[in-house]
Design brief:
This protein has 16 helices and no strands. By secondary structure, it is mainly alpha-helical. Helix 8 packs antiparallel against helix 14.
């Protein structure tokens, strides 16, 4: 291969990487935000007395996560209208069958179905039949064949977290906080993993297991570190819109930027490695709320709110007295320390030249 061929091949790879891992993944994150995550925020608002109808709206939005991600990916790839509309069905199938790995399944399967759908789109006189048929047949077929295995692969992460949950509180605090925090930012459902592992001490969920309650608190710490961390350290690029969309939405919005420069992930991840053991060993935080909230972080504030509700849920038997240390720890671990630590580590990575201005810019 001569120099011209190498240059051409390199340019093609960069073009494909941008198309799929930056443009498509960025659009998928926005689709997830506009469905599952905004629905979660509606659910949180529905906890306010008199606004319970918002929870019903939230459920509708959450159930559309797969279709929203599929359509968003199709739109980002320049799909024709029938391809975009058909991708909603593909996204639903992949997300449902992929379970905890649903978003990841949607990402890969939707791209293949969309590209094949575009090969036949507007090529026949019966396009209204051919394009949806081909797109949904390919996407649905791949969902049946591949999505469950993506879910199984993500299950290995769950097994590792389950092992970590049974270790000493310090070890649990570090491992669970870091891993669940990273999973939250990846196109994987951290909430589904936490729910599947029952990361709560609630009697209704896990027979009062203290180890799982500790792991649930560490998971909350890790998720908050990623969301608050990215929201704060990218403020100079994204201002208030970025602060809110990441801080109460999802840090997954940064995935395209992480692919371009993985070093931007260092600051919030190191922050989670500190806040996790602080939550479990210093502030004695334990999750007795709904297990799914352990993987939500500050999305709709459901991580800290879930912990608070668990503290005062007598039906599920929180066995300890809630102390001032718990309250101080909750505020520090979920909000204050992730911001301060992430800013500190971000400052160091910028000083080292690993991170530069503009590396965390979002297309909002």
């Amino acid at each position: 291969m001569d120099g011209t061929e190498k240059k051409t091949a390199g340019g093609l790879l960069r073009k494909l990487a941008k198309r799929y891992f930056i443009d498509a993944m960025g659009a998928m994150a926005q689709g997830l935000f506009a469905s599952l995550l905004i629905g979660t925020i509606f659910n949180a608002l529905g906890m306010i007395p008199g606004l319970d109808f918002l929870s019903e709206i939230g459920v509708f939005a959450q159930e559309m996560a797969g279709p929203a991600m599929g359509a968003a990916i199709a739109y980002s790839l320049g799909g024709h209208p029938l391809v975009i509309f058909s991708s909603a069905a593909v996204g639903y199938a992949a997300n449902t069958l992929g379970k905890a790995g649903g978003p990841l399944a949607v990402f890969f399967i939707a791209i293949i179905a969309i590209e094949i759908g575009m090969l036949v789109s507007k090529k026949t006189k019966v396009d209204i039949i051919v394009t949806p048929f081909v797109t949904i047949f390919v996407g649905g077929g791949l969902s049946l064949l591949v999505a469950p295995y993506i879910g199984i692969a993500v299950g290995y992460i769950s097994e590792f977290i389950g092992w970590a949950a049974l270790q000493a509180p310090f070890v649990t605090g570090i491992i669970v906080s870091v891993v669940i925090g990273v999973v939250l930012t990846l196109p994987i459902s951290s909430a589904a993993i936490c729910a599947g592992l029952s990361l709560t001490g609630s009697i209704a969920a896990s027979s009062g297991s203290e180890g799982l309650a500790i792991a649930g608190a560490a998971a909350v710490a890790g998720c908050c570190a990623q969301m608050v961390g990215f929201a704060v350290i990218s403020f100079r690029e994204n201002k208030w819109g970025g602060l809110l969309s990441q801080g109460i939405g999802t840090s997954m919005l940064q995935m395209p930027n992480i692919i371009k420069n993985p070093c931007i992930w260092i600051a919030p991840t190191l922050a989670s490695a500190i806040t996790g053991p602080l939550a479990t060993c210093v502030f004695d935080l334990k999750m007795y709320g709904a297990a799914i909230n352990s993987g939500m972080g500050t999305c709709g504030m459901l991580g800290p709110v879930g912990m608070i509700l668990g503290w005062y849920d007598k039906a599920n038997g929180y066995p300890y007295e809630v102390t001032a240390l718990n309250w101080v720890g909750l505020v520090l671990v979920c909000f204050v320390l992730p911001a301060i630590l992430s800013l500190l580590f971000d400052f160091l990575t910028r000083k080292l030249g690993w991170v530069k201005d503009g590396d965390m810019k979002l297309e909002l």
